From TrEMBL:
Family from the record: Belongs to the short-chain dehydrogenases/reductases (SDR) family.
Listed PANTHER family: 3-OXOACYL-(ACYL-CARRIER-PROTEIN) REDUCTASE (AFU_ORTHOLOGUE AFUA_6G11210), SHORT-CHAIN DEHYDROGENASE_REDUCTASE FAMILY PROTEIN
Top-rank lineage group of the source organism: Bacteria
Any one Pfam family match given in the protein's UniProt record, by short name: adh_short
UniProt entry keywords in alphabetical sequence: Oxidoreductase
Name of the featured protein: SDR family NAD(P)-dependent oxidoreductase
Length: 271
C-alpha cells in the first residue's frame, strides 16, 4: 500500500508510535489521518501540530459502540477507510502478582480492541474489495516480555488474531500486517524503567531502543511491501528463529539475562 490520498485511522494516536505514524502518513501524502485516543485533548493537539490533513478525536478503543460509531462517521465523511491501525496498547510490568483488573485491561486493549476494529471496518472494506489492517502487536507477541505476564499473553494473542485475519480475508482483497517492534522510546518504556520493571530493563539491555519515528519509517516500508510481519528491529526475526529451533536454549539465555539484571540491581550503583 502506498499512502498517497489514503484515508487512515490510527488508535492510540496521541503519542508514541501512534503519533509518529500520523506524522509519517501525512508526510507520505495521506488525504486524512484520524488520530483517535482515549486522551481526546492530546489527540487534538497532535493533529493540530501535524497540520490540516490530520484530525484528532476522542475514542475508547475497548468500547465496541464507540469504535463502530467512529468508523461510520469517517466513512460517511470521507467515503471510505483505506487503512485502519489498531495501535493502542498497555503494559503492566507484572507477573503472577498482576491483579485480575490488570489482566482484563490488557486483554481488552491489546486484543479485544483489535477485534472491535476489524468487526467495524471490514464490512466497508470487503464491499469495496480492498482495505488494509495494521495491528501493533510488539516483538513480545513473537518472543516473550520478560517480567510482564499479561503483556506477553495478550500480545501473542494479538499476533494470532492478525494472522487469522490475514489467512481468512487476503483472497478478498484485505491485507493485514502485524507491527512488532522491540524497544521503542515511548512513555510506556520510560515509565517501566522509572518503576524498575524487569521487562523494561531487559528491553533496554537487549538491543537498540528506536525512536517512534524510526518505527514509523519501517512501517511505511512494510506497508509498501505488504509484509505480514513488520519488524523495525530486524534482529527479532533471528530471535524468533532461534526460539523456534531451540526453545530450551532460548529460555536458558533469557534466564541468564534476568539473573544478571537482578544481581546488578541488588548491587546498586557502582562508584
Amino acid at each position: 500500500m502506498r499512502l498517497t490520498d489514503r484515508v487512515v485511522v490510527v488508535t492510540g494516536g496521541a503519542g508514541g508510535i501512534g503519533a509518529a505514524l500520523g506524522r509519517r502518513f501525512v508526510a507520505e501524502g495521506a488525504a486524512v489521518v484520524v488520530l483517535a485516543d482515549l486522551d481526546a485533548d492530546a489527540a487534538h493537539a497532535v493533529a493540530a501540530a501535524i497540520g490540516p490533513a490530520a484530525r484528532g478525536v476522542g475514542l475508547d478503543a475497548t468500547d465496541a459502540a464507540q469504535v463502530a460509531a467512529l468508523v461510520t462517521e469517517v466513512e460517511t465523511r470521507y467515503g471510505r477507510i483505506d487503512l485502519f491501525c489498531a495501535n493502542a496498547g498497555v503494559a503492566t510490568g507484572r507477573g503472577l502478582d498482576a491483579e485480575d483488573a490488570d489482566w482484563e485491561r490488557s486483554w481488552q486493549v491489546n486484543v479485544v480492541a483489535h477485534v472491535y476494529a476489524a468487526r467495524a471496518v471490514l464490512p466497508g472494506m470487503l464491499a469495496r474489495g480492498e482495505g488494509y489492517l495494521l495491528h501493533t502487536c510488539s516483538a513480545a507477541g513473537l518472543l516473550t516480555a520478560v517480567g510482564d505476564a499479561p503483556y506477553t499473553a495478550t500480545k501473542h494473542a494479538a499476533v494470532g488474531f492478525a494472522e487469522w485475519l490475514a489467512i481468512t480475508y487476503r483472497d478478498r482483497g484485505i491485507r493485514v500486517s502485524a507491527l512488532c517492534p522491540q524497544g521503542v522510546d515511548t512513555p510506556m518504556l520510560a515509565d517501566g524503567l522509572a518503576e524498575g520493571h524487569l521487562g523494561a530493563r531487559v528491553i533496554a539491555a537487549s538491543g537498540p531502543v528506536l525512536t517512534p519515528d524510526a518505527v514509523a519509517d519501517a512501517t511505511v516500508t512494510g506497508l509498501a511491501e505488504e509484509r505480514f510481519l513488520i519488524l523495525p528491529h530486524p534482529e527479532v526475526a533471528d530471535y524468533a528463529r532461534r526460539r523456534a529451533d531451540d526453545p530450551d536454549g532460548w529460555q536458558a539465555g533469557l534466564r541468564r539475562l534476568m539473573g544478571r539484571l537482578r544481581r546488578d540491581a541488588q548491587a546498586g550503583p557502582q562508584r
